[in-house]
Fold this protein.
Amino acid sequence: MTKIIVVGGGAGGLELATKLGRTLGRKRRAEITLVDKNSSHLWKPLLHEVATGSMDEGVDALSYRAHAKNHGFDFQMGTLWDIDRDQKVITLAPMYDENNELLMPERELEYDILVMAIGSTSNDFNTPGVRDNCIFLDNPKQAHRFRREMNNEFMRLHAKHGQGSVDIAIVGAGATGVELSAELHNAIKELRNYGFRDLDNSKLNVTLVEAGERILPALPPRISSAAHQELLKLGVKVKTNTFVTKADEEGLETKEGERIHADIMVWAAGIKAPDFLKDIAGLETNRINQLEVENTLQTTRDENIFVIGDCAACTQEDGSKVPPRAQSAHQMASRCFSNIVAKLNGRELKPYVFKDHGSLVSLSRFSTVGSLMGNLTKGSMMIEGRIARMVYISLYRMHQIALHGYVKTGLMMLVGRINRVLRPSLKLH
């Protein structure tokens, strides 16, 4: 039986493993295995909501093991260590508990087809002090750390009867930085409803730092400008054309010598594929460790290894790179699935073509701005407000539908409505 291994249970990897399990695994046409270092899945674009407590990951996280059982594939918890392309074997690193006691020894898994869907991590560009003093919102663990430190700062301020302020600096004004900036102001607004009467927006100083000329540089200027104005209305200090050269315990230092004081610092200034991917198994990589792929999503040096998501360096016909977005991973998962099935059946593989359906940025409950491209108009259409918020939420619903189907997703939406009544609007523990 053909053995297919998907490494990485992010948006693309989990959707792919689910499709393969339903189509091939249940029919015993292939043995599907998903590998991930975590035990549960959370849609990465929602991490800023987990960080501020707007989302309870205990409710929304998905168990890999339970999902695998229900969708015809196997799950192996572990971290990829090495790939032996000659023997078609991957090695998983040994696992240890918090007391450094061995939980699982080193393991080897055989494959006929391997899919790399490991995603990305924050790129600190080797800026001094960043790794030791800044938080990276790459995973739920980092989001938990941020929420813990944020709550501690608010508690200290509350103990001083609101005398002083909480200073938070966010480096990088992409979607993560912008959405987190807005979500923080929503968090302090909600905290007032739960006994922190001496807290308000004047006690929260959020500074958003961007090296480029404008925030949201990957989006059209008119959307960037609209988001900028919304952030200013909330009280966020936006600093563009500001290059951070150093971070320490007290804050950030810029190229111009300016000091930006911060109690908490978040680095969201760029992404790269994990460092261990650099030249792994002799595969071709680029300067940010992404694996170079053909237009069929197969690696340039091994047709039995596919790559999807943020760790794939995929060049389109016009020479542009596929952007590292959730919609890219979703589309890649669909094309990779059809190409794997075609490969098993001896048919020709088709090229992956990225279709940009637009981008949306949520400014918490205050606003949503973005563009829809190629859907209702021949070019792009800017949308904002309630309609944009509905479209933004629908992106997550599409991900849920890919994993659970329409019926279960509908039931989950119903439970979500009920939880709005039963649970606090902000996670307080």
Notes: The two ends are 47 Å apart (CA to CA). Residues 372-379 have pLDDT under 50 and may be disordered. Residues 279 and 410 are 43 Å apart (CA to CA). The longest strand covers residues 30-36.
